[in-house]
Design brief:
The protein is α/β, with parallel strands linked by helices. It has one domain (about 5-235): 3-Layer(aba) Sandwich (Rossmann fold). The protein is built from 7 helices and 9 strands. It has helices at about 15-25, 65-75, 85-95, 115-125, 180-185, 200-205, 210-235; strands spanning about 5-10, 30-35, 50, 80-85, 100-115, 130-140, 150-155, 160-165, 165-170. Strands 2-1-3-4-9-8-7-5-6 form a 9-stranded mixed beta sheet. It starts with a strand and ends in a 7-residue tail after the last helix.
Length: about 240
């Protein structure tokens, strides 16, 4: 069986809690570190693909971004499940015909994310929360590609997640661990200095951090479980 690949772009944007969940479920995976120069897998070599965040713009024109978008399109054509988080979700949007642009304001900190009617119909999971306080950390936003189904909506930035074929994209960060949040707050403290209703002060982001993470994991666990089930449902096309 082909492996599941997790693609990291920078050291500070790790899989975090996602790997904890996969290990708990005994799901094997391989990690690819773009920053270290690891080569991307070919679509036909992967069972599924997870794309993590990055503090760069999808529109920067970097060759590795173009290569990843080509990989997303190839997986989409083969109905191979792809899960994109923040930058990864933006990359899926652009690869499949959506647009990524600067948001009216950066969105940083804990913000409510709501499940849409379409999301309720798709997940069909009574344990999936209708609203959670999710961690956001981004300055760009994506549009819904043609044919995409909106799954999550927010306040400061409306589009928070969609599904299109075998691709699932979210704007928020269901994968963060406590260590990651503390590292981001320390590393990017300047981003939170001029706080407003969309940007929380760094001290507020750390308030009740353990409880907030536990609350978000009510969504993370259900979301990860649903996406992993799509791996089981995927069957490679028969050639010949």
């Amino acid at each position: 069986m082909n492996p599941l690949y997790i693609i990291s772009h920078v050291a500070c944007s790790r899989p975090g809690y996602l790997c904890e969940y996969l290990d708990r479920q005994s799901v094997p995976y391989r990690r690819v570190d773009v920053e270290s120069g690891d080569p991307l897998p070919a679509a036909e070599e992967t069972r599924g693909l997870i794309l993590l965040g990055a503090p760069v713009s999808v529109n920067s024109g970097a060759p590795w971004i173009e290569q990843e978008m080509a990989l997303v399109r190839a997986c989409h054509q083969r109905q191979i499940p792809v899960f994109g988080i923040c930058f990864g979700g933006q990359l899926i949007s652009k690869a499949l015909g959506g647009a990524v642009c600067s948001a009216a304001s950066m969105q940083i900190g804990w913000h409510p994310v709501n499940l849409t009617e379409q999301g309720r119909a798709l997940f069909r999971d009574p344990e999936m929360p209708q609203q959670v306080e999710a961690l956001e950390w981004h300055e760009e936003t994506f549009s819904l590609p043609p044919g995409a189904v909106p799954l999550f909506r927010g306040g400061c930035i409306e589009n928070q997640g969609f599904r299109l074929g075998s691709c699932l994209a979210v704007q928020f960060h269901p994968e963060v661990s406590e260590a990651m949040v503390r590292e981001w707050v320390d590393r990017y403290q300047a981003c939170t200095a001029n706080h407003n209703h969309c940007i929380q002060h760094h001290s507020d982001i750390l308030l009740q951090l353990e409880q907030r993470l536990q609350g978000m994991r009510r969504l993370s666990d259900r979301l990860f479980a649903w996406w992993l089930a799509t791996l089981d449902r995927h069957r490679p096309p028969i050639s010949g």
